[in-house]
Amino acid sequence: MDQKGFLISMDAILGLLIFMVLMGVVTNVNIFTSHSYSQEKGFTYSAQESMELMANHNDSGKGSILAQIANKLGAGEEKSAEKIAEEFLNNSGYENYKFCVINQPNKSTITSKGDIDGSKNVNSAIRRYGDYTFQLYVGK
Q: How many Å apart are CA 3 and CA 126, to the nearest integer?
């Protein structure tokens, strides 16, 4: 009689164990997929990452991209600053962008590509270098 009671108890414990494992699996399965705009590949932080690259990328001993642009603007060479910015940003693969100096009396645009104002999603980053504060808008 004791053997039958032991087997019934073991059967009940194993049944509860299997039930608990199945409940754990079911509760951890994500049935509903949610779309987050921050999950769009390579867009959420792209302006900030590009601005960081421009601030830290040392181009063959000439200094960072932002340093080169600031030096050209300080020397009054706006076209040279535009060329440096365009070369970097065009290689980044953005559809739409706008790169500005925002602490000047008339917030001047250094370079732009596409229609940033017509973009559905716009992302921006600000970085200061020397006497200049730069802002990069990236649109998609």
A: 77
The position carrying tokens 């808008």 is 137
d(C-alpha 49, C-alpha 45), whole Å: 6
Q: In 38-69, which positions are buried (b, 16+ CB within 10 angstroms) versus exposed (e)?
A: eeeeebeebbbebbeebbeeeeeeeebbbbbb
Q: Which domain holds residue 14?
A: 1-33
Can you give the pTM of this predicted structure? 0.65
Asked if 35 and 119 touch (Cβ cutoff 8 Å), the reply is no
- The answer on pLDDT for 5 being more than 80 is no
pLDDT in tens, 56-91: 877 677 888 899 999 998 888 889 999 999 988 888
Q: Which amino acid is at 109?
A: T
Number of domains comprising the chain:
2
Is 7 a domain residue? yes
